[in-house]
Design goal:
Order of helices and strands of chain A: HHHHHH
Number of strands of chain B: 2
Structural class of chain B: mainly alpha
Shape of chain A: globular
Radius of gyration of chain B: 23 Å
Helix content of chain A: over 70%
Number of helices of chain A: 6
Largest sheet of chain A: none
Number of strands of chain A: 0
Distance between the termini of chain B: 58 Å
Shape of chain B: globular
CATH architecture of chain A: Up-down Bundle
Largest sheet of chain B: 2 strands, antiparallel
Order of helices and strands of chain B: HHHHEEHHHHHHHHHH
Oligomer: heterodimer
CATH superfamily of chain A: NADH-ubiquinone/plastoquinone oxidoreductase chain 6, subunit NuoJ
Strand order of the largest sheet of chain B: 1-2
Number of helices of chain B: 14
Structural class of chain A: mainly alpha
Helix content of chain B: 55-70%
Distance between the termini of chain A: 65 Å
CATH class of chain A: Mainly Alpha
Strand content of chain B: under 5%
């Protein structure tokens, strides 16, 4: 087995274990930590695929900014251990079959198309940072700017909602 | 002997040698950095002591030089107390997280432009860095972004008021200052057009204009990054929780903040993490704004004499250590200090005798000299500045550093665009 393959299996196992533990953990902080493990493992997988920029952004945005806020909120609210509830009917009759269907679909697609992502010769060959930025600021400049506008509106909405309680 | 080396050459020519070399480099860098960390505590205590008209540590070893070793032993042999009611897993995870992340960031710091003048077994080139990715700067920011967890989780898991307050404070502080930290280097990235740390250094070429080529002056790009540097360094001090931004561990308010409930070596791990981040930040300041390993003098024969600067510094300081050692109070000191002094003098003299070695250490010498200056600056700030109030801290982060760094980005972008010739 080559080194990248070993690293891939380690990271993939980490991601899956993290995802399972995210659901099974009783304490919100432990769940949040499991989610961070998933994010970082995914970033490692991106790095392995040669998408360096995506990997770094994955850690900075998801692993850093967003999860820090999650952890901070859980700490501030001093949330205790969750209580286990019974399996809801919606999950039993709607969720489980849908999850199985999705897994089957993904597995079928992967087996038919095989390894559609080429193994890059050098790091960063798949999605070089310069190429991504060129695409973002030329071809996709309008969707990109509109997305940032949307985020700005969302931030302002959050501000308005937070301010209203004062008066 | 030659049979052994040729055998090793054959065995290590492929991936095995590559991995072995990487592990050796990592182990060596860890050893060096941890030793430097230990002596950084000694240096800090000495400098702060002299600023406050004290002598500082001087009992353990000559001039207190063995104080770090004594501290380390004490950390190892102290009772490891775990308070009741803590979240065990997270409590143990936090110091590991803090230490690993701060040490991991050193992996992308380049320490010199040229590989060593000889090859590793199997013909592998020995570069002065562990890895040099195209996105070195982004990786550093990714690691910094994760660095919050060590402190925040330590505060939360300790199941105690003061650590929790310290952890909350530091999370808020680090999240706020990360914005300014990231925005302030965008100017440098715009000028260099890359995230690679070695390329950023090479772009600040000093071979013609000397230190004017550094980003802090910005001769090549036509705009100074002094504002960016101010924002970056301030935010970086806040990011490393050092004075005057050490609110998370404000003694007068929070006992010791997030690490109040940590004892023995777990406390030491937070300490080592803090000092390692200091080294990383100093290296980053040097690389981004002060030309990295670029000499402040232009290249060329007229400035050749500046290449003897390492010797000029090493030989007199070595001689001074010998002189100081001969008249030292204790016999131990009279034995050890002259030996240390002779070693320093001999290294300095050797650099004069061997010009190739002297040429090779020029770049690392300047990099380390600048890193040392910033480390001194850290200590200097600690010795002189009072701590900010919490509202002042937040105001500086959000209302001063962030807008100023955004303006800096806009101006730099405009200048880069105007001077850009398609």
């Amino acid at each position: 087995m080559s080194a990248p393959l070993i690293i891939f299996f380690v990271l993939a196992a980490l991601a899956v274990i993290g995802a399972v533990s995210l659901i099974l953990q009783k304490h919100p902080i432990h769940s949040a930590l499991s989610l961070i493990v998933v994010m970082v493992a995914l970033a490692g997988l991106y790095l392995l695929m040669g998408a360096e920029f995506v990997a770094a952004v994955q850690i900075i945005v998801y692993g850093g900014a967003i999860m820090v806020l999650f952890v901070l909120v859980i700490m501030l609210l001093n949330a205790g251990e969750e209580e286990r509830t019974d399996f809801s009917k919606l999950a039993k009759f709607g969720g489980l079959p849908l999850a199985l269907a999705l897994t089957g679909l993904l597995a079928a697609t992967m087996t038919t198309h095989g390894a559609s992502v080429p193994n890059p010769e050098t790091a960063g060959a798949l999605a070089p940072t310069g190429q991504i930025s060129n695409l973002l600021f030329t071809t996709f400049v309008y969707p990109f700017e509109l997305t940032s506008f949307l985020i700005l509106v969302a931030i302002m909405g959050a501000l308005v909602l937070a301010q209203r309680e004062k008066s | 002997m030659s049979a052994l080396t040729s055998h090793l050459d054959g065995a290590l020519s492929g991936a095995a040698g590559y991995w072995l070399l990487a592990f050796i480099k990592i182990a060596l860098l860890l050893f060096i950095v941890l030793t430097v960390n230990a002596y950084l505590t000694w240096f800090e205590r000495k400098v702060v002591a002299h600023m406050q008209s004290r002598i500082g540590p001087h009992r353990v070893g000559p001039h207190g030089l063995l104080q770090p070793a004594a501290d380390g032993l004490k950390f190892l042999f102290k009772e490891d107390v775990m308070p009741g009611g803590v979240d065990k897993f997270v409590y143990l995870l936090a110091p590991f997280l803090a230490l690993t992340l701060s040490l991991a960031s050193l992996a992308v710091i380049p320490f010199g432009p040229k590989p060593l003048p000889f090859h590793f077994f199997g013909g592998h080139q020995i570069d002065l860095w562990i890895t040099n990715p195209d996105i070195g700067l982004l990786i550093l920011f990714a690691i910094t972004a994760l660095g919050v967890y060590g402190v925040a989780l330590a505060g939360w898991a300790s199941n105690s008021k003061y650590p929790l307050l310290g952890g909350l404070r530091s999370s808020a502080q680090m999240v706020s200052y990360e914005l300014a930290l990231t925005m302030s280097v965008v100017g440098v990235v715009l000028m260099a057009n890359t995230f690679s740390l070695t390329d950023i250094i090479n772009q600040q070429d000093s071979s013609k204009v000397g230190f004017l080529g550094w980003n802090i002056i910005g001769w090549h790009a036509g705009i100074t990054q002094i504002v960016g540097f101010f924002c970056f360094f301030t935010a970086a001090i806040a990011e490393t929780n050092r004075v005057p931004f050490d609110l998370p561990e404000a003694e007068s308010e929070l006992v010791a903040g997030f690490h109040t409930e940590y004892s023995s070596f777990k406390f030491a791990m937070f300490f080592i993490a803090e000092y390692t981040s200091m080294i990383t930040v100093s290296a980053l300041c040097t690389i981004l704004f002060f030309g990295g390993w670029q000499s402040p003098f232009p290249a060329g024969d007229a400035w050749k004499f500046t290449h003897y600067l390492p010797s000029v510094i090493l030989i007199p300081s070595g001689l001074w250590v010998i002189y100081d050692g001969i008249k030292y109070e204790t016999i131990w000191g009279r034995l050890v200090l002259p030996v240390i002094g002779s070693v320093i003098t001999v290294i300095g003299a050797a650099l004069v005798v061997f010009p190739t070695a002297n040429e090779f250490i020029q770049a690392p010498f300047w990099l380390l000299a600048k890193i040392f200056f910033f480390l001194f600056f850290y200590v200097w700030a600690r010795g002189t500045l009072p701590r900010f109030r919490y509202d002042q801290l937040m105001n500086i982060g959000w209302k001063l550093l962030l807008p100023v760094s955004i303006v800096n980005v806009i101006i730099t972008a405009a200048v880069v665009l105007l001077r850009h010739k398609p």
